[in-house]
Design brief:
globular, D-Maltodextrin-Binding Protein, domain 2, 3 domains, alpha/beta, five-stranded mixed sheet, 39% helix
């Protein structure tokens, strides 16, 4: 390998391709086109005089040189992210951008009006909301704050339990859970607790409609496709549905409001977390104190 300085942007390209295993995946990560990334990689390899990836139908596999560069890039990226968090932690102004990640169900059924109230109260803070059922890496600054249902949130984060999400059986008025068809979670929803509960209740064979989002399950119940177990905060507000029993204790989930320890003194983050916790308390979703979670000292 030629002895020369390697630009950080080139290392980012190598790391993205190594992580994604394909040009298309790396392009999505970097916000670039497939063709642009293809040219970038060819230029990097030509300038270094070494092949960094083996191309095949299965994707891009790093060579020894590529793996070595990706390892260096990973170390640099970690250090850059750490200093970014530390610098952000000195921000005492109630202004700037705040990145929040949560699920589609929580946003549509619970959080959107709270976020709107926060924006009206603090117009100098811009919210960027990333809706995903996948976990975001707060250490990498994928998001500043996460609102996630969890029974065991990551120990390396700080935050608080802000609500108990109860779930119950819902259906159209007149539906009998003992004889009706059922709506189940699709396999890509990765809702193991509900799948286990349905199996234990002997309802698997009656799940004739499955879908991989809770909002989809709600829509299916509203359209008369059967009974479904749904979050109470979501389904209680739907006039076409009735709650067909008490909440199911085994499916109750704690809602956590989390951030990275380096960011806990950022004024806009502390203010946002306090605002959301207070708003949820006013809605009667009292936090619980069962189970083990992260340390939640935000002082």
């Amino acid at each position: 390998m030629n002895e020369q300085l390697i630009p950080w942007d080139d290392l980012r390209v190598v790391l993205a391709i190594t992580t994604a295993g394909s040009l298309a995946g790396a392009a999505r990560r970097l916000g670039a086109s497939h063709a642009t990334l293809f040219r970038r990689l060819n230029t990097i390899e030509a300038r270094l005089g070494v092949r960094l990836f083996e191309r095949s139908r299965q994707g891009y596999a790093p060579t020894a040189a590529g793996a070595e560069l990706a390892e260096v890039a990973e170390r640099i990226a970690t250090e850059v992210q750490e200093i970014e968090r530390r610098l952000a932690g000195r921000d005492l102004q109630l202004s700037g951008t705040l990145r929040v990640t949560t699920t589609d169900t929580l946003l549509m059924g619970l959080l959107s009006p709270i976020f709107a109230d926060f924006r009206h109260t603090h117009p100098q803070i811009q919210l960027e909301v990333a809706v995903s059922n996948q976990r975001f890496d707060l250490a990498r600054r994928d998001a500043d704050v996460a609102l996630r249902p969890s029974s065991s949130p990551p120990q390396h984060l700080v935050g608080r339990r802000v609500a108990l999400i109860e779930q119950a059986i819902y259906g159209r008025p007149g539906d009998d859970p003992g004889t009706a068809d059922w709506i189940g979670p699709g396999r890509h929803l990765e809702y193991d607790d509900l799948a286990t509960w349905l199996a234990d209740a002997g309802l698997e064979a009656r799940c004739h409609y499955r879908i991989d989002t809770l909002l989809g399950m709600l829509a299916a119940a509203c359209d008369g496709l059967g009974c479904a177990v749904l979050p109470c905060y979501l389904a209680d507000a739907e006039p076409s549905l009735s709650r067909l029993g008490a909440p199911i204790p085994a499916l109750a989930t704690e809602l956590w409001l989390l951030t990275h320890p380096d960011l806990r003194r950022v004024a806009r983050i502390r203010t946002f977390m306090d605002f959301v916790a207070t708003a949820l308390a006013h809605r009667g979703l009292a936090p619980t104190h069962r189970g083990q979670g992260p340390r939640h000292d935000l002082s």
